Amino acid sequence: MLPPDAGAASGSAASRFASTRPDHIGSRADSTRRRAALFGEFTVEDDDADSEDTLDLHLPSEYIALFTTGTPDLLDRLPMWGPVATPVGSFHLVPVRIERDLPLIHGWMNDPAVAEFWELAGPRNRTEEHLRTQLDGDGRSVPCLGMLDGTPMSYWEIYRADLDPLARYYPARPNDTGIHLLLGGAADRGQGLGTALLRAVADLVLARRPACARVVAEPDLRNTPSVAAFLSAGFRLAAEVDLPDKRAALMIRDRILRDLS
Q1: How far apart are CA 80 and CA 180, in angstroms?
Q2: Which of 23, 115, 189, 256 has its CA 20 to 30 A from that of 51?
Q3: Could you give the CA distance from residue 146 to residue 136 in angstroms, rounded to a whole number?
Q4: CA proximity to 13, closest of 115, 104, 106, 142
C-alpha cells in the first residue's frame, strides 16, 4: 500500500505547517521576510549572530499587484479547472465544503496509515480547524476532494509554495505550486493509483497556471512508497530538506521536462 503523501497522505505536521498555518510567522525576522518577499528581496536576520543571509527575489510587477488590488486569486481560479481524463478514469479536483465533506475527511484522517504522517487523528473539530484555516485564509492553499469517475476517493491541498513558510527551506521561485495528497481508501493504495493521479494533477496545475514553471512536494523522507510514487509520476528528487518536524524529500516536477518524463 502507498502510505501518506502519494498513497495515503502527505502532510505530517511539517507538511501541514506550509499550507495550514501560512500566517503563523512568529518573529521580527519573519515579518522582514514577508515584506522583503513582496518588494524584491528576501532577507533572513539572526538576532543572535552578526551575519545576514540575503536571497534576492525580484518579483514581476504583476505579481506584486496581486497584493494591492483587493482579494487576490492566487491559484488561477482552481474551482473552475474542471475534470481531466487520466489512465484510471475521469478525475476532478473539487474544493472542500465543510458541511458536506468533513465527515468523510475526518474518517480518512483517523485511518492509522494516514494519521502516521498527517497527525490529524482525533476529534472532528481538529480536522475542521485544519480545513477552515485554509478556507478562511487568503487563498494561498485550497483543500480539495479528488473525485474519480464521480466518487470522492482522495484529499488534496494545492498551495502556493512560493508564498508559504516552505519557501524558507528551498530556493523557491515565483508561482511554485505545491501539492499534498492522501488516498482515502485502503483498497486504493499500492495499486499505482497515487502515481497516476500525481502525474495528472501536476500536469493539470501546469496547464491551468501558465506562470507556474514547477510543481513541488515535500513528503517525509521515511515514506519511501510516497517518494517512489512521486518519482514514477515524473518528479525529481531535488534535495533532502530539514523541516521543523521532519526530514523531507523535496520533489519537483518541471514544466520544461514534463513531456520527457
Answers
A1: 19
A2: 23
A3: 20
A4: 115
Give the DSSP letter of residue 220: B
Q: What is the pLDDT of residues 181-206, one digit of tens each?
A: 999 999 898 889 999 999 999 999 99
Can you tell me which residue has the cell 458541511? 99
Long-range contact pairs involving 103-111 (C-beta distance under 8 Å, separation at least 24): 104/145, 104/152, 104/184, 105/131, 105/145, 105/155, 107/184, 108/155, 108/182, 108/184, 111/8, 111/184, 111/186
Q: Read off the pTM.
A: 0.75
Q: What is the amino acid identity at position 219?
A: P
Question: Which grid coordinates are listed for 251?
Answer: 520533489
- Give residue 26's identity as a one-letter amino acid code: G
Residue in this structure with the C-alpha cell 486569486, named with its chain if needed: 73
What are the angstrom distances between the C-alpha of 8 and each of 24, 103, 127, 190?
A: 26, 17, 16, 9
Convert the pLDDT of each residue in 133-182 to its tens digit: 999 999 999 999 999 999 999 999 999 999 999 999 999 999 999 999 99
Nearest to 57 by CA among 40, 77, 72: 40
